[in-house]
Structure formats: structure tokens, C-alpha cells
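My main concern about presentation is that the manuscript never shows what a single data entry looks like. For the editor and my fellow referees, an illustration may be useful. For illustration, here is how one protein appears when written out as sequence plus C-alpha cells:

***
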Amino acid sequence: MFKSLLAVAAVSTIASVAFAADNFATPKEAEAMVAKAVKALGADRTTTLKEITGKDKKWVDRDLYPVVYDMHGKCIAHGQNERQVGKDLIDLADADGKEFIKERVSLATSKGKFWQDYKFTDPVSKKVLPKSAYCEKTGEYIVCAGVYKR
């Protein structure tokens, strides 16, 4: 009987971990979201920026969404917080005081494509969590999408 209970507990744990993993984006999905946004911006910049900020379903996947900045740290589109659009966020700092937008602009200038770690509010749990964002510079913009470290 005890072995049966352990087996049931193990299967339940594995199933809940698999279920949780399906509910949250992966690094590969973040890279794909950025590639999709870069391509869409090249085809129709105005519509793409409006759709991202308007939370169009093609730009929101569970906890994954794109954010677009100009090369001075101004938010051009945001898939979760339209209040940030149009604001100069260059001095924005995370919970640890890291000026991640300033760093993002610097990395975009020097590398073009990169991963960046910082802390940000998760739209699912509403908690500040460690996050890794994949970003690419495309013309005058920096396009990012990230995954939360749970």
C-alpha cells in the first residue's frame, strides 16, 4: 500500500510539473516571439506596434509578450503595460536597482542580439521575479521578449 501511495505521489508531482511548464514560456519561445516581431515590424511597423500594445492574441502567449524600445530607451510598444508606451524608460531600475533599459540599449548597440537578466513583475502571478529577456536590435528599435525564472 505504501509503495502504491508513493507511486501516485510521484506521478502527481511529475504531472503538475509538466502542467506548470506548459503554462509558462520557454527561452526558445521568447526567441521565436522576437523573430516574429522583428519580421512583422519590417513588413508593417505601424500595425505591429499597435497590435503589440493592444495585446492582440498573436502577441500574447501565456506570460510571453514583446516589448519594443527605441535606441534611447523610450518604450514604443509594450505587450502587457500600455502605460509605459511613449515614456522615456532609460533610467528605469529593477527591484535590485539594476538600470536594465540602459544596459539593454548598450547591449543592443554593442551586440545586436543578446540575453539579459533582471527582475520584473510577472503578469501571471503579479510577483516580481527574476527574468531573462532575449533582445534583438532591428534598425532603430530593440525588440525583447522574456521568460520568468520560476
Q: What stands out?
A: The first helix runs from residue 2 to 23. Residues 96 and 123 are 19 Å apart (CA to CA). The mean pLDDT is 89. The helical segments are 2-23, 27-43, 45-53, 100-110.
